[in-house]
Amino acid sequence: MGKKTVFSGVQPSGALTIGNYIGAIKRWVPLQEKYDCYYSIVDQHAITVPQEAKDLRKNTLDIIALLMACGIDPKKSTLFIQSHVTEHAELAWVLNSITYMGQLNRMTQFKDKSKRSDENLNAALFTYPVLMAADILLYKTDLVPVGDDQKQHLELARDLAERFNSRYSDTFTVPEPLIDKSGARIMSLQDPTVKMSKSDSDENAYILILDDEAAIKRKIKRAVTDSVGEIAYSDDQPGIKNLINIYSNFSGDTVEDIVQRYKGRGYGDFKKDLEEVVVEALRPIRESFEEIRSDKSYLEEVYREGAKEASYSAMKVLRKVHKKIGFIPR
Ligand code: AMP
Ligand code: TRP
To answer: Is any atom of ligand 2 closer than 6 Å to the C-beta of 135?
Structure first.
């Protein structure tokens, strides 16, 4: 038995938040030691909402450098840009043909995004989960580390794998989600009932991985709490609960330890320490990012090599799929 395969992706649609970091990237790092990992900058997903070409270009390179700064090692993992491996879009087309409209209509992310937008919606936003299924299934992925918000999309990937296998014979591995409890959903600092998102219009709602010290401190100071005045990990105090989760994830301390430590102390004390914890945790990432990002030729080497490796596996699977559905081999 070989190693199990891990796949995950992140969209280059702006700077990443500590929600992305805690819910996804931080957990990708240790997986590299045990599994065959594929980590992709999914630029084809990003264009499901309008993007300026120059921003997309910059964000894509930023995110590769940032992933490396966070500890993704291109020697251990396959790190690549989705559009460089053309099999993703090709398999997505095939999977579209076995996906039911009703399934896509039920996707909550699509419903949310379409509610928020009053312009004409594009078809790619609707079929986005099918492309995501293609990403995962192309590598015979066993495990997919994601935040809680991607659970429904992963269900679809599982469903499509099973449907294809039963229609044509065993081809795809049915992937399992890898969702961590405490970091699965980091909430907005301004409204702890919605998830922290880089697309939030209020920049105090999120902390970016690359925010400087002053910004981090300011945002934590302004974070919404409540009038209870007690540090407790409770759904009745969603603001404090979220801050405890952030504290725990950055310090490595358990939630119980943190609650115990701040018993009888005020929110001010707690927030001050949290500021330090977050600033110190992000400092080395920011420094390493600057260094990697400034070396263009190294970055190029990494994503070219990554695409080569990924294509090798993806091609084999796509060829098999085409054969099974009746396409003539070239
Ligand atoms: P995206 O920014 O949508 O490309 O998300 C990249 C990864 O970060 C996915 O695995 C998401 O589930 C995860 N993620 C995004 N926002 C959050 C959040 N607020 N809390 C936890 N995980 C998140
Ligand atoms: N849809 C994911 C998100 O918005 C990103 C993504 C694309 C992904 N393809 C993937 C995540 C495959 C895991 C596996 O966060």
So the answer is: yes
- List, in order, residues 6 or more apart from 178 with CB less than 8 Å away: 6, 27, 143, 144, 145, 146
- The CATH number assigned to the domain with range 203-290 reads 1.10.240.10
Check 195, 217, 219, 241 and give the catalytic one: 195
Question: Which CATH fold topology does 5-183+295-325 show?
Answer: Rossmann fold (3.40.50)
Q: What would the two tokens of residue 13 be?
A: 């649609």
φ/ψ (deg, to 5) at 303: -75, -25
Ligand at minimal distance from the CA of 23 is 1
pLDDT tens-digit readout, 206-265: 999 999 999 999 999 999 999 999 999 999 999 999 999 999 999 999 999 999 999 999
Tokens 């725990």 map to which residue? 248
Q: Where are the domains of the chain?
A: 5-183+295-325, 203-290
Please report, for residues 100, 128, 130, 170, the alpha-carbon distance to residue 95 in angstroms, rounded to integers and kept in the order given: 10, 11, 7, 15
pLDDT in tens, 281-304: 999 999 999 999 999 999 999 999
The Å distance, Cα 225 to ligand 2 centre, comes to 31
Query: Pocket of ligand 2, candidates 28, 39, 45: which has the most ligand atoms within 8 Å of its Cβ, to mutate?
Result: 45
- Take residue 8 and report the two structure tokens written for it: 């995950």
Catalytic: 75?
Answer: no
**Ligand 1 within 6 A of 186 CB?**
yes
